[in-house]
Amino acid sequence: MSGQMTEITMTDGTAVEAYVAKPGGEGPWPGLVILSEVYNVNHWVREVADGYAEQGYLCLAPDLYWRQEPGRYLNYNPQDQQVARSLGYSMDLDAFTGDMADYVTTVKAMDGCNGKVGTVGYCLGGKLVYLAMARGLADAGVGYYAVQLDKFLDEAANIARPLMLHFAELDEHVPQETVAMVKEATAGNAQVEIYDYRGADHGFNRHGYPPFDPEAARVALERSLAFFGRNLRG
Questions:
Q1: Which residues, in sequence order, are CB contacts of 54 under 8 Å at separation 6+?
Q2: In the chain, which end has fewer C-beta atoms inside a 10 angstrom radius, N or C?
Q3: Residue-wise pLDDT tens for the chain (234 aa)?
Q4: Domains in the chain and their CATH numbers?
């Protein structure tokens, strides 16, 4: 199964590229907005969307940098890494709030959507998932090794819908001190589930590239699918 690049129309009329992957057969299906790493909607993110589509989710992976450098999809090499980090850390996060609302609306309007839309994201995308859930933009969210959450702990109290976060023990981009702060900020919130992966590093879910950790990736995916199944189906 493979999806395709298409264009979606934002509220302001701008046409934005996005990768769409649909399940086989007939719906209705829950929707997922897939929020990429800093490398944007590259080949790996498209494979992630295809994988979730095979699990019965209607997937949309938008071009996160359409406001900055539309169509800039990056690879895993030192040159692209530098560009990726610059683009990722200079995103307008207030503008993202409106963009995310448009992504969710787009998925809900797709043929076969059951009306519920979750979101899953990695690295930068994990941070965006956290913000999306704190701002009430999706029905459920899963964030992998979400960066810079220490800068947004004041929004933790606003999380009122299910959120699952996966963190890696050896992650220098998300040190254990930050993970502890996130746990403290969300303590007592039954909507938030946090899991730690011992011996795993940042990017442990990115198959085909170091530091991929197949066991951590397997367990995290099982937890994520069960979580979405509970919160987006039925």
A1: 1, 23
A2: C
A3: 579 999 999 999 999 999 999 999 888 999 999 999 999 999 999 999 999 999 999 999 999 999 999 999 999 999 999 999 999 999 999 999 999 999 999 999 999 999 999 999 999 999 999 999 999 999 999 999 999 999 999 999 999 999 999 999 999 999 999 999 999 999 999 999 999 999 999 999 999 999 999 999 999 999 999 999 999 997
A4: 4-232 (3.40.50.1820)
Angular region, 47: left φ>0, alpha ψ -120 to 50, beta rest: alpha
Cis peptide before 210 (omega within 30 of 0): no
**Bond prior to 175 in cis (omega within 30° of 0):** no
Catalytic positions, written as ranges: 171, 202
- What residues pair up with 61 in beta bridges, in sequence order? 19
Distances (CA, A) of 226 to 4, 8, 35, 49, 195: 26, 29, 19, 17, 14
Half-sphere exposure of 47 (CA within 13 A, CB side): 7
Q: Taking Cα atoms as reference points, which of 61, 36, 64 lies closest to residue 49?
A: 61
